[in-house]
Amino acid sequence: MSAAKNIPSRRAEWLLTLPSLGWLAVFFVAPALIVFLLAFKTADATGGVSAGWTLDNLRALADPQYRPILWRTFWISGTTTLICLVIALPVSFAMARAAPRWRNFLLLLIIIPFWTNFLIRVFAWKTLLQSDGLVSQLLDATRLFDESPTLLYNSGAVLLIMVYTQLPFAILPLYAAAERFDFTLMDAARDLGASGFRAFRSVFIPGISRGLGAAALIVFVATIGMYVVPDIVGGTDSEMIGNKIAQRAQGDRNLPLASALAAALLFCVLLLLILCSSAFRRSEKLDNALKGELQA
Amino acid sequence: MKQLLVLLTLFTTGAFAADTLHVFTWADYINPDLVKQFEKKHQCKVAIDTFDSNEAMYARLKAGASGYDLIFPSSYIITLMVQQDMLQPLDHAQLSNLKNVEFEVLGKLADSAMKHSVPYTFGYAVIAYRKDKVKDIEPSWKTFARTDLKKRVTLLNDMRETIGAALKSLGYSLNTRDDKQLAAARDVLIAWKKNIAKFDNEGYKAGVDSGEFNLVHGYSGDLWQVMQTNKKVGVIIPNEGVSASCDEMVIPKGAPNPALAHQLINFLLDGKASAENMQNIGYLCPNSAGLKLVEKEFLNNPAVTIPADVKAKSEVIQDLGDDLKKYTKVWDEVKAG
Prior knowledge:
The complex is a heterodimer.
Chain A: H1 3-38, E1 41-43, E2 49-53, H2 56-60, H3 66-97, H4 100-111, H5 118-129, H6 134-142, H7 155-180, H8 184-191, H9 196-207, H10 209-224, H11 228-233, H12 241-249, H13 255-295
Antiparallel strand pairs in A: 1-2
Helix pairs in contact in A: 1-13, 3-7, 3-10, 7-10, 8-9, 10-13, 12-13
Chain B: H1 2-17, E1 19-25, H2 32-42, E2 44-50, H3 54-62, E3 70-71, H4 75-83, H5 103-106, E4 117-130, E5 153-155, H6 159-169, H7 179-193, E6 198-199, H8 204-210, E7 215-219, H9 220-229, E8 233-236, E9 243-250, H10 258-269, H11 271-281, H12 288-293, H13 296-300, H14 308-313, E10 315-316, H15 324-336
């Protein structure tokens, strides 16, 4: 490709991305900057923000009271991500291998829950799991327990409903990657003597690694800041960092401290994104190098 | 493009053409029949938006939420809102029914001249329980220390109310600024926390009704509403004293429709409307004309009129200014504990 031809296409590329960049700047970068700035302000007792600047809010983050909440937040989001991937992998594999007619139908089934409001779906789970709900009645019928166990208001319930709400976000990018995957590679592996599971593990999974990375990232980032699910189905031991931020902003009237917590969360997510994108780039380089070697 | 603009202006002006009164209040806090009557009488629409704690309402306004015409906060936060210059002074010339407001209640409030706020209801934070599941209940906050209720218990997710209940159980004031008393309340709450399912402000009503919860900490009128349809639910008034609160009607600065807001205040202060309202929402309206019209049975309900000796030990939650931090610290320790 000649250099002269490259320049106008570059300009066109910029012009095309400008609307989305503008969108990002107004609705993401600007609010994030406001949050960062507020984190360095002092709060007054009336819920306002005073004029001075301070580092106290950042220092307050080191307070040991946040440690169990942070630990729980990472534990719940990490486990949710892992479970979602473990379920989504075989699902996306099966979907990509299904006949085209079935494929669209299955895709529709994954997407249909989005037609209902997120909150309503969470409340529906609450109805299912509550003490006189369907699941409890079924458990009672098995007579395994003297008295049906409390299913709601604990971290297990939070985890279950997080997995439920995030699963489509894991399946969709994995399916997109699996659809582009060249399944003849798996046949080749089988021909060379690999078992079905071995071919899945050593050929399919590395083949869709980027989809896997994207799915993990989307689910983790969406769950780490979750507020609604622990608020509705969580109990006294399932508070996550999102709930703490809400408490700081509302009950405590301390917007700067809420901002410091939110900024710390944002910082963690950004760090994760940078690490992932550099890992992607490294694998891309490796791919190109390999291709070059093969061609030579 | 021009046609599109014309179309857009038509739509937007259309939406604002009919008078809409934007009310910001607690859930189930106004008789829907009265709202319909008012809409018909004044040819307007009443849009109701709800909040579940004074703090949430305050934070929302402080963050710049506007467009509300009439808000129903509790008196302690009104003190703060007046300090912050968030409220309009009321025009008494438009409020002919102000004479109905009970004199006795006004004496206990910061704004006794009703410069910015008019008392709407008087209620308490009390306990409700399932008569079919909880036996030998004592009228005491210490009920939350009972370990035999299988965690089917809730406490309010409200820092001041819940720490207040623990302070009361120890015989202290719920507006205390004493660190030792607050530390003792914290320990009580950490012990209670082991027996509860969650801290909750809204789900307890349906929960005690369906039998999901056996014992709940909640607001008297809300629990009265549940008792009307469910005979298995009873109310106890802790004899250590309870938190009493007066919710009042205020008009925020910048309200789009202050004239109509005054009309609604006046409408709700009417004796007949007030009586109808009380018997629908379950909160006592401090309205002398309304109290004359209301049924005796309503006034005898334990969730409406509490015993005189408990009333004497009850307190109204006050704004503590900078010392609110002490409560925040206790609340953090309870949640983490």
